[in-house]
Amino acid sequence: MSNITKKVSWSSRGDELGAAGEGTPLLNGSEQPRHSRQFSEGGSLFQIGRLSTVDLEEEISAEEEAARGQPREIPHNEKLLSLKYESLDYDNIENQLFLEEERRMSFTGFRCLEISRWLICGLIGLLTGLIACVIDIVVEKLAGYKYEAIKQNIERFTEVGGLSISLILWAVLNFSFVMVGSILVAFFEPVAAGSGIPQIKCYLNGVKVPRVVRLKTLVVKVCGVICSVVGGLAVGKEGPMIHSGAVVAAGVSQGRSTTLKKDLMIFEYFRRDTEKRDFVSAGAAAGVSAAFGAPVGGVLFSLEEGASFWNQMLTWRIFFASMISTFTLNFVLSIYHNNTGDLSNPGLINFGRFESENLNYNLYEIPLFIAMGAIGGVLGALFNVLNYWLTIFRIRYVHRPCLQVMEAMLVAAVTATVSFTMIYFSNDCQPLDSEHAEEYPLQLFCADGEYNSMATTFFNTPERSVRSLFHNQPGTWNPLTLGLFTLTYFFLACWTYGLAVSAGVFIPSLLIGAAWGRLCGIWLASIASAGSIWADPGKYALIGAAAQLGGIVRMTLSLTVILVEATGNVTYGLPIMLVLLTAKIVGDYFQEGLYDIHIKLQSVPFLHWEAPATSHWLTAREVMSSPVTCLNRIEKVGTIVDVLSNTSTNHNGFPVVMQVSDNDEPAKLCGLILRSQLIVLLKHKVFVELAGSRLSRRKLQLKDFRDAYPRFPPIQSIHVSQDERECLMDLTEFMNPTPYTVPQETSLPRVFKLFRALGLRHLVVVDDANRVIGLVTRKDLARYHLGKYGLEELHLAQT
Fold first, then answer.
1. Are residue 283 and residue 172 in the same domain, yes or no?
2. pTM of the complete model
3. Lowest mean per-residue pLDDT among 273-287, 527-541, 644-658, 713-727
4. Rounded to whole angstroms, how far apart are CA atoms 509 and 529?
5. What pLDDT was estimated at residue 750?
6. Which residue has the higher pLDDT, 777 or 353?
């Protein structure tokens, strides 16, 4: 019988991660654990729920299965933390092999490594820029063919009647493209769904999200985002560029493809999590740079939203990758547009230049901008709340790939129907002048020489619609058109984000904000004195776009710079910063940012910048996992195989001690060794008894461990004979002899700061005599958070 808790997650369709519904019994029949310990101090109440490992599997009889006619519901509760996600090893293992390699390396060798890092960053920028070019050109061509076909069809049937055929054509074209994109994501690579920004945030935080930086993910991402945008969904192609850049970085920096089983035998030194993380940061920044033409914004995005760890040289290399990415995009597009050598184009989205004298702002407008920021925060929080409940509904009911594809096709058809209906019933006709010629002007029922203004917003790619709202002359839209467009597009964008398609939320957010921002500008102009030009609608469209995007994603510093660079006018730096700050403060009062919500809904053990407030009274002894599985310095092979094969624990780090006592008494620590290291040692049969017969064979080197990275073989694939089980393995040479340790009385914030700042995977807790009494891992720290009733503890879900 299949597990009923199968749920679509970032890592796989088949990953089994269930959760208990709030206030409902858990799936194994036991009641949901209540908060069991309470601490009162100074009148404030602290509550800690007891730690429980919840088994989410339940067998269902055939009769019960047959009796179920309605869609199968998957209970979900965000108060759970998944055991499925492992940590990345961001700490260097300074064992004897590492020290020997470092001693052998000359000064020239170190310089070559540094040059290689710069070369890799250049390649990352180059390839990310080329991918952005491919996406941009293909989307422009396909969307052009689609809109031209629909436009001709509408014009033909406007005269003779039968516009319903045009609607059917539009809907069929939309859901055909979306169906292809959704099938790719739902059936071939579910981790490619969405923008990919939450997954990259988790990766850079130290969480190993399965298959997030694979070549297959990149291919599905690029094809999926082309289909989504051409399919007319309320999405943008900018968000997925960040994920694409990260995948490119992860592949290029390793000098091989594990998917294609092709090894170029270059960049072998960088085959470890520490180096890979830095390059993925550069890839994410290059993606932002290619998307918005904002190299500095890309660096700041990587710093603010992504990287948990930073240094000065990394900043320069990331900036270099961002600049190369923008340059490559501009150069290739200049050739495509027959302006070879013209590098003045920005990124994928062109907001146009805000250079008009009418776009200056005065001191008395600052309060208006701040008020718009507050509106953006409220609307952003509403968007996030609606999307939160919609995502929970999808987790519970729309968890099969076929259902996900059907939902995506339904949204595509509804989007086309709503767009057509709004255009059909709109009587907002504007004169068609040569100065602001529309890309696909629809006359419909307007007089000759006029076009339907509503069609400018719907009958276009979202990027072009944003540019129209920013730069079209005052009087291009009437307020009713903008109001209806804002309302419908808000709900369409909210429904679309979270579908099984590759899509970003940046451009829909900007489009919604630009629409209601322009509406504010029109309203202010109407109440201003006659002849006053200070309330230019385009200026307020820009402020509204910033407010809406800030209210949804809650980015401040990087988004300010991205918008300033994308608009090519630093004049609006102060208003945009104030608007984004206000939107974040107001939005955070109601709900978290969209990316944080989706991270939490996937039960990822994400570590924030600081430990929860009011947690200083918790010590390492209360937080740690114990008892700890330890290994002797010289251990029997059979014992190691049994420990690694134990599926109930599935530990990844093992303290190495002088001698494990029989009565489970703590033993003195002398090092730490990882599961991946032990598997490589077993694979190469590094046994004490075979040392004499291995004189003719070469000694094991770090290269052997790097060659096995990142897909270390499972223990089940390694054959160990009965005679070999009796052999001994000396771990001295391979273990990390100086692992980070903390005394058992260390407070939680100090443990948290050490763990996160150093990017650790395991932190050993010792007593006064340096004996191992516990081990702190990511999940031990991530399960504590500040809730409504004080400090709360999440439950660990056994998957």
1. yes
2. 0.86
3. 527-541
4. 32
5. 93
6. 777
Residue 56 lies in a domain: no
| DSSP state, residue 504 | B
How far is it, in rounded angstroms, from Cα 216 to Cα 322? 24
First to last CA, the chain: 16
Do 302 and 440 belong together in one domain?
no
Sign for the pseudo-dihedral over CA of 299, 587, 196, 569: negative
Say if strands 784-787 and 772-776 run parallel, antiparallel, or are unpaired: unpaired
Q: How far apart are CA 179 and CA 500, in angstroms?
A: 10
Q: Tell me which residue of 2, 18, 147, 141 sits closest to 78, measured CA to CA.
A: 18
Asked whether residue 179 falls in the same domain as residue 135, the answer is: yes
At a CB cut-off of 8 Å and minimum separation 6, what does 528 contact? 534, 535
104, part of any domain: no
* 701/750 same-domain check: yes
**3 state DSSP class of 125:** helix
Say if CB 611 and CB 214 are below 8 A apart.
no
Rounded to the nearest 5 degrees, what angle is found at the Cα of 142, between the Cα atoms of 140 and 146? Answer: 115
Q: What are the C-alpha distances in Å from 650 to residues 676, 714, 715? A: 12, 11, 11
Identify any residues that bridge with 791 across adjacent strands, giving them in sequence order.
Answer: 786
Please tell me the predicted confidence (pLDDT) of residue 25: 33
DSSP secondary-structure letter at 568? T
Amino acid at 635: E
Answer whether the bond into residue 739 is a cis peptide, omega within 30°: no
Split into its structural domains, the chain has a count of 3
Give a yes or no: residue 30 inside a domain.
no
708: CATH: 3.10.580.10
Q: Which domain holds residue 236?
A: 120-337
Looking at the fold, whether 304 and 376 belong to one and the same domain comes out as no
pLDDT digits (tens, 9 = 90+) for 391-419: 999 988 888 899 999 999 999 999 988 88
Place of tokens 């490559």: 328
Q: What is the band of 361 on the pLDDT scale with cuts at 50, 70, 90? A: confident
315 and 383 belong to one structural domain = no
Same domain, 702 and 791: yes
Mean pLDDT value across residues 41-61: 38
Which pairing describes strands 35-41 and 44-49: parallel, antiparallel, or unpaired?
Answer: antiparallel
CA 682 and chain centroid, separation: 36
Alpha helices in 398-478 (DSSP H): 401-425, 453-458, 462-471
Query: For residue 188, with 0-12 CB atoms within 10 Å meaning exposed, 13-18 middle and 19 or more buried, which class applies?
Result: middle
Whether residue 154 is found in the same domain as residue 278: yes
Alpha-carbon gap, residue 577 to 575, rounded angstroms: 5
Is 628 in contact with 727 (CB distance < 8 Å)? Answer: no
Rounded to an integer, what distance in angstroms lies between the CA atom of residue 516 and that of residue 545? 8
